[in-house]
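Figure 2 data, in text form.
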Amino acid sequence: MKIKNTFKFLIFAFIAIQLGSCTNTDAEQKFDQTPTERLNAQKKELSDLLLTSQYGWKAVYFTDNTQLGGFTHLFKFSNDGKVEMASDFDEDTDSYVSDYSVELSSTVSLLFSTKNRIHLLSDSNNFPTAALEGKGYKGDFQFLYYGQENGDIIFKTNRSFQELRFVKATADDWNNLSENIIMAENVVGGDDRPLFRMLETNDGTTKHQLDFVFDEAPRFATANSVETGYNMSYNMGIAYTPTGITVSPAVVVKGQNLTNFAYNESDGSFTATGTGGVSATIKYTNKPLILTDDYKVLLDGNPFKVYGYISPFLTNAPTTSTLCKSLLNEINANLPANQQLTRVQLYFNDGGWNYIEYRFSGGRPTLYHNVTTSENAVDKTIVLTHDSWQTATALIPAPALLKKIDDELTNSKGLYVKRENFKITYSNVIWTFTSANSNFRITTYALN
């Protein structure tokens, strides 16, 4: 009986092999081609494919989503080697024409051979953060062809070998590209919005809140948990869309990847919605999620401390608020051309004195605002109260030039003080002083 069954099995196996050998697949046809023939076929395939979309192609290019956001590019190729291109790299969303070619070497690639918008990402002299000096935005302008998937063209970047998809563009993509820039302003947040933000995740039953910080220049955000017993962090690059933002990597909540966040104009929030009640929302809050005790080391009776805002190193720090920048710019606009406010320094317990120092360039005398300090233990702020104004040698009336910025530093509700966990240009620890009464925040170095 066993011999009979074995014989039947051998017969079926022989028939299966014969049937399989009679099937002539596309893969086998390609295998019959020489490597050169296969590459030439791929070159023609890509050359033809680039011309097939009526409105061209769109790529949202995240060059390095561990420290940079995404940049939307639109391409309209023509068969004469020209490409019309636009991007949301900056406020210039107009389209420009340059050259492209489909190159053939060890693989097939798309090369943008003359300068256009995409080359802004590969300029090593144009870098958004000190950590990227000499690297720029880490972009490429040559992309290796890896076929098609669901109507998309699949490329891999030439240097970092990461996937980049070209999807078919629409007329709206071209017409509405400038709206990405408007959305960027919503992500940054206007002067009328609170300075503090959170990322709130909801897995359908439980909500968690994470402190959210966005850095405009690299288009990058971090979110860190603040709850006891809950340890979670998200680092994400952000790309702008006309209706919100796209993030990479995704915010993962209960196994769901949330990438597309819709903007709500009424409250300035951005929400990504999954299934089963899963969601993630970036939204404003009127005070820090964690009220630190960092201010306590500045109160009377403690060792001498000094913190300094120094231009230009801290002017564009992600923690320097728009209101602070505008007040600094207003001061400088009212000074002679050869003078500028270069430092705002806060001194605590300097031989029993507390004061704010305003230092200028161009020979203008330094001004000092002597203050007293007190504690708001409930809100965890330090309150600076006016005592007197002086130069290095004499008492003076309060200078009108400095009134607006000084009023922020000496507001009656006080300042939230935070020892930050990042560095800017130098190794000095960063401390921020944030008004509890407005959207003012100044970034400083610890100077002793």
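Caption note: Residues 1-29 have pLDDT under 50 and may be disordered.
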